Amino acid sequence: MALIVGVTGGIGSGKSALTRYLEARGITVVDADVVAREVVEPGQPALAAIAEHFGQAILQADGTLDRAALRQKVFADPAQRRWLEELTHPLIGAAIQAQLAASRSAYTVLSSPLLLEGSQALLTELVVVVDVPPELQLERTMARDNNDEAQVKRIMAAQLDRQARLAKADIVIDNSGTLEDLEQQAEALHQRLLEKAKAEA
C-alpha cells in the first residue's frame, strides 16, 4: 500500500485549497466530503432511508437531498445527528477504503474534516493539519457559505477543538496568510511527501 496522508482542519481553514494544489501535481485526493455526498445521491439506499426518517420535505424538487435543511435538523438535535452518522458512516468508510486502494499516485491524500474524530486517521500514516485562528475560520466560512455566524459556530463546536487537532498533527500548515503563502507551504509539503513515499517504496 502506498503512503496515505491525512489532511484535515476546521471548517474554513483552507483544506480544499491545499488539496487542490496537490491534486494539480498529479496526486490522488480522496475527499471524505465528496464521498459523503456520493452515498446520499438519488438511487442510493441511504437517501431513501433519510427521506423515510425525516420525511419527503428533506428532498428538493429534483429528488436530491436538501443538505441545508438536513444540516439544520442534525446540528439542532444530537440524537438525529447520531442516527444520520450510524446510517452513513459505514457506507462512507467502505467507499473511502475502496478509493484509497484504487489510487496509483506517488502518495495518496485522504482529506476529511472529521479525520481525527473517528477512525479515519487509522487509514493514514501521517496527519497534516491546516490551521487558522478561529476568528479567521468564522470570517472565511461566512463569506464562502453564506451561513450566519451562529450556524458556523455550531459547526465549529461540533468539530474537534483547535488545540486537540494541533496536538495530533504530524505536520501543521499555517494558512493565516495569503494563497501564495499557502502554495509555498504546499509545494514544500509535496516534495517532502514524495521523498517519504520514495524512501518507503
TrEMBL record:
Q: What does this protein do?
A: Catalyzes the phosphorylation of the 3'-hydroxyl group of dephosphocoenzyme A to form coenzyme A.
Identify the pathway.
Cofactor biosynthesis; coenzyme A biosynthesis; CoA from (R)-pantothenate: step 5/5
Q: Kindly state which keywords UniProt assigns to this record, in alphabetical order.
A: ATP-binding, Coenzyme A biosynthesis, Cytoplasm, Kinase, Nucleotide-binding, Transferase
Cellular component aspect of the GO annotation? cytoplasm
The residues that hold ATP are G12, S13, G14, K15, S16, A17
InterPro entries from the entry?
Answer: Depp_CoAkinase, P-loop_NTPase
Q: Which molecular function terms from Gene Ontology are attached?
A: ATP binding; dephospho-CoA kinase activity
Cross-referenced Pfam families: CoaE
An example GO BP is: coenzyme A biosynthetic process
* Protein name listed in UniProt: Dephospho-CoA kinase
